[in-house]
Every structure is written in C-alpha cells, then in structure tokens.
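Title: Prediction job returns without error message
Component: structure pipeline
Severity: low
Priority: P3
Assignee: unassigned

Description:
Job completed but the reporter wants confirmation the result is attached to the right record. Sequence as submitted:
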Amino acid sequence: MNEPILSVKNLKTYFYMEEGVVKAVDGVSFDLYQNEVLGIVGETGSGKSVTVKSIMRLIKPPGKIVDGQIIYRTKDGREIDILKIPEKELYKIRGSEISMVFQDPMTSLNPLYTIGDQLVETIIVHQNLDKRRAKIKAIEMLELVGIPEPEKRFNSYPFEFSGGMRQRVVIAIALSCNPAILIADEPTTALDVTIQAQILDLFRNLQQEFKTAVIFITHDLGVIASMADKIMVMYGGKQM
C-alpha cells in the first residue's frame, strides 16, 4: 500500500488573546496521498486556513502550534516532521516541495516587480537554474496557465493584470518548481463566477498533468464536489 506523502496528526494551533485562548485548530488529523485532491470545507472561522498555514509554519503570534506532528515524505525519500526541522531546511522545502496559492493574489505578488522577475526569482532559488534558463522556464509556465502573449506579459506588472490573470500567475509561480504538494486556500473566492470556473478548470488540468497532491480549501460545497477525491469538514477548529 502506498504511504501518504503528508500525515497530519493531532494538530493543535491556539491563539492566546487577551480575552482568552482561541482553539483555532483542535486535534486535526488526516493523510494526503500522491496525486490526490483533499478538499477541506467549512464556514468562515472553522479553522481551515489556520490548518494549512500551520502545515507551512506560517503561524504568527499570538498564534502558536501547541501540539501535533506534520510528517512529510520528501522528494528524496526522507521522512521529516515539519514542526521540528530548522528554519533553514523549512525554507528549502517551502516553495520547492510544498507550495501555496492564497485567496488574494495581490498578497502573493510584489507590485514593485514585474511578473517575470518574480517567476524567475522563484525558479532560480529553488531549481538552481541560471537567469537565461529560468526566463525560458518562466515563459513556459505563463503559457501553461493560459496567459496570452507570455513573452510580452513577462515584463508586465501585477496591476496590469485582471484578478483572474493574477491568480493564474500565482498558480504558475506555485507550480514552477513542480512541488509534491500544492495548497490552495480559497483561490477563487475573490473572483467572479465566470473566472472562478476557468481557474477551477485550470487547477484540474494542471493537477492531472503534474500529478501533484492538492489540499483545496473552500466554503463552497459545489466547488469541493467537482474538485476533491475526499473531503474533510471542519467546524469550530475540529474535523467532523
């Protein structure tokens, strides 16, 4: 039987507020397998985003991961606990082996740099390519996610793109290093219905092409039904 690529065990992430302790994630466990899409669904505040930010170790004070294990099986076959590895090793994994697409693409894109510069920087850092080859790869990724005239748009800034096109760029950046796991945190919520459908089709096609394991977060049951191989429902920080 195949081993899961990611095993989350009894994860607990609490926020220590003046009013008291908020148990945002309280004992969540699940397994994710290669080429599988896990849908996490729940209302706003149920703990979905905190769960995946905990996996990426992106929790900031007053939040704290207080218990649990996040066992990841790396591309080179090692088994590591993401919660215990040093920051330097985490930096190598985050982006190259586990990537994340956020709800608002403008939180992921720097408005002061061109789309091309941001793609090239990611590719150089995580794939050790020189600038020329990284640019070729970046243009290929823009074309893959459906950006028209990718050679020309390579030099554009984020504000020159629509919301849907910016989200395509963020997906291109996330997939540019061929990660083993892609986390999508409500990636279509900020888009209108027509563009949502296009982005969901893009996710399906790219997931099948890259054979990437995906954690897809949403509050929309219709989206989850069309995307996920299995579903985890969250409420009040717990899985139902």
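Comment from assignee: result matches the submitted record. The longest strand covers residues 20-32.
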